[in-house]
């Protein structure tokens, strides 16, 4: 019997990593209006290994410390945001390389995209760059 075709599934969340989680959360909440779900969490394996044995179980034992936040967009798609502290996350050395595979942008829908773009351009700094 051939396998059944899956239904058109909804996206629950994506995960990104960055080098400055508080700056990322501030930018996405202030500029794009995303909402922070709960609080920014800071976990150290040496102080409490429980999250590393349950929530972060898919990460290797070498992960000792991280900050973590969940943002949600207007249509409910979540963004899990990570700052890996030990070992530290490294920013990319080069500009975007279109010839390399992987996620390279997210897109938001706004009823007035021109005003949103002005808001983005008014920022003193560019939005935080994802690492993965």
UniProtKB/TrEMBL annotation:
Domain of life: Eukaryota
Database matches in Pfam families: Glyoxalase
Coiled-coil intervals: none
Domain Glyoxalase/fosfomycin resistance/dioxygenase: 11-121
Name the UniProt record assigns to this protein: Glyoxalase/fosfomycin resistance/dioxygenase domain-containing protein
Organism encoding this protein: Thyridium curvatum
Lineage of the species this protein comes from: Eukaryota, Fungi, Dikarya, Ascomycota, Pezizomycotina
């Amino acid at each position: 019997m051939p396998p059944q075709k899956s239904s058109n599934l909804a996206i629950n969340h994506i995960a990104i990593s960055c080098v400055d989680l508080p700056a990322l959360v501030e930018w996405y909440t202030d500029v794009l209006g995303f909402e922070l779900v709960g609080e920014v969490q800071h976990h150290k394996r040496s102080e409490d290994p429980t999250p590393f044995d349950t929530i972060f179980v898919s990460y290797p034992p070498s992960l000792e410390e991280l900050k973590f936040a969940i943002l949600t967009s207007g249509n409910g798609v979540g963004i899990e945001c990570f700052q890996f502290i030990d070992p530290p996350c490294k920013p990319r050395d080069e500009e975007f390389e279109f010839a390399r595979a992987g996620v390279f942008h997210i897109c938001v829908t706004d009823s007035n995209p021109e005003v949103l773009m002005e808001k983005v351009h008014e920022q003193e700094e560019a939005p935080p760059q994802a690492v993965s």
